[in-house]
Amino acid sequence: MSEPSAVVTARGAERISGGHLWIYRSDVRSAKAEAGDVVRVSDERGRLVGRAFWSDRSQIALRFLTRRDEPVDRNFFAQRIHAAAEYRARVVEDTECFRLLYGEGDLVPSLIVDRYGGDASQVWATAATGAELSERLAELPGFGAYKAQITMALLGKQFGVRPDGWREAAGRFGEEGSHYSVADITDAASLGAVREHKKQAKAAAKAKG
Question: Cα angle at 13 between 10 and 19, to 5 degrees?
């Protein structure tokens, strides 16, 4: 089986050599990969540009992991995570709540890990009401109201975290029998239903202009 691969334009290759970590779809000449694959990226002359995560949907088609010709495996990620943890140990002071792993900033694209005093469950375990939990979730780094509703629905539907008023606080994502988000995905069929809903919503939005 051949290694997943992508070929990029000279402009795309120059972005990476200049220190950028993304290549946009407009600079991808071709790709032989499935969504989420780690691909070997080369320029149009066949020269190695690096290795990156491939997305077949996002306009950011390639998120780079390394510019070197090295295996991207369990040990690769263990080293990156260890380096990030060592750095935070040096610079974080007087708090047990901080961002341990920061995606591209730690050369692990799309992966974010936050530490909450060693026990993230305290975010929801001590919330007395859905409104209180929603407020806590919305204040988490990178969340906001929209992601808070989805997370509220996920906790309630799949993990039994159901303080009073949780469905109302989750908005439409809390509706029973819905297929709006990751909160509703439990198997292949429900995954397909959520994807179909998103497809229809995108088409409707496009039709409105």
Answer: 140
Rounded to 5°, angle at Cα 103 from 115 and 44: 165
Residue 168: per-residue pLDDT: 95
pLDDT tens sequence across 114-128: 877 767 788 888 899
For 157, residues 6+ apart whose C-beta sits below 8 A from its C-beta are 174, 183, 184
Q: What is the pTM (predicted TM-score) of this model?
A: 0.59
Which CATH architecture does the domain made up of 5-66 adopt? Answer: Roll (2.30)
Q: Which CATH architecture has domain 74-116?
A: 2-Layer Sandwich (3.30)
Using CA atoms, how far apart are residues 156 and 64, in angstroms rounded to an integer? 35
Domain ranges for the chain, please list them. Answer: 5-66, 74-116, 122-208
